[in-house]
Amino acid sequence: MPELPEVETTKRGIAPYIEHQRIECVTIRENRFRTPVPEYLAERLVHQQIGQISRRAKYLLLPVAEGHLIWHLGMSGSLRLETPEAALKKHDHIQLTMSSGWQLRYHDPRRFGFVDFIEDDPMSDSRLASLGPEPLSPILTGSYLYRVSRGKKSSVKTFIMDNAVVVGVGNIYASEALFMAGIDPRRAAGRISMERYQRLSAAIKSVLSSAIEQGGTTLRDFVSGQGEPGYFAQKLNVYGRSGAECVRCGTTLRNIVLGQRASVYCPGCQR
DNA sequence: CCCGATTCCTGTAGGC
DNA sequence: TGCCTACAGGAATCGG
């Protein structure tokens, strides 16, 4: 499921093929997503040139002359490049045919994602304006997490998955970062020391950078722009390993529910 | 304000 | 083998 590393992998994969290319044709086969595809989307895009693609949190931003496409992959979405001859897959809902001949196809079985068109400054858009800092930016530090967590009673895992605190940390990487930092995910966010938050911020950066290097994590259906899976799944220490032995201390990993999310951790070395 | 619960959706896995 | 149910989850929204 696309978290930040998967969205970054997608961005890097598709950018060389669609930046500075003109959109020749827009095909929308399905418009029911988290929000409906705007009816005017195709007419706003056709014959427009795409500028430099960027990413904010898990949103992809594709600039065109009169605004930005904003794309969110939800939890089962992927964007991949195909030649026009390549067979359509079930759930290939939207497709942009580029002047280069490549087709950008949006595949999203669960339809939790969406695409929208923003005319104004995208950073002023309500969906982007309230977001916290990027995890790989210098703004995310141990002292930042320590400061904004004071008084918070929710669990530290829920806290780092809150997009107002820091963006792009979903269930997989939150679980992995807490394991790496040796912190029990159930701990109240407001009662964790500065020292531990320094370890946690370093762990978040480490696990996300490493996952980006591996091309993301493929559990079921994530594929890069080139249609290839990511390889970080092989490096997961706790996510999806409930009942197995901890790679560090051998204790049996436990699964609990925090914030309605499965949370696997090691009772032996996460305290 | 804060925090937890609910909601959207479909493919997959597990139980019987 | 086939049917049924539970589960996966990002983020908006609601309610206490």
N-to-C terminal Cα separation, in Å?
28 Å
Strand tally is 10
Strand content: 15-25%
Instruction: Choose one word for the global shape.
Output: elongated
Number of helices in the DSSP assignment: 7
Integer average pLDDT: 90
- The proportion of residues forming helix, as a percent range, comes to 25-40%
Q: Please list the strands of the largest sheet in the order they lie side by side.
A: 1-6-7-5
Order of helices and strands: HEHEEEEEEEHHHHHEE
Low-confidence stretches: none
Main sheet properties:
4 strands, antiparallel
Radius of gyration over C-alpha positions, nearest whole angstrom: 20 Å
- The class by helix and strand makeup works out as alpha+beta
What does this 3D model show about the protein?
It is a single chain. The chain has 271 residues and is an alpha+beta fold. It has helices spanning 4-18, 41-45, 126-129, 142-149, 156-160, 171-181, 194-213, and strands at residues 23-28, 54-56, 59-64, 67-72, 78-82, 92-98, 103-107, 114-118, 254-258, 261-265. The strands form three sheets. Strands 1-6-7-5 form a four-stranded antiparallel β-sheet. Helix 1 (4-18) runs parallel beside helix 7 (194-213) and helix 6 (171-181) crosses helix 7 (194-213). The two termini are 28 Å apart. 40% of the residues are buried. The mean pLDDT is 90. It binds a DNA duplex (16 and 16 nucleotides) through loops.
List the SSEs and their pairings.
Layout: H1 4-18, E1 23-28, H2 41-45, E2 54-56, E3 59-64, E4 67-72, E5 78-82, E6 92-98, E7 103-107, E8 114-118, H3 126-129, H4 142-149, H5 156-160, H6 171-181, H7 194-213, E9 254-258, E10 261-265
Antiparallel strand pairs: 1-6, 2-3, 3-4, 4-8, 5-7, 6-7, 9-10
The chain binds a DNA duplex (16 and 16 nucleotides) through loops.
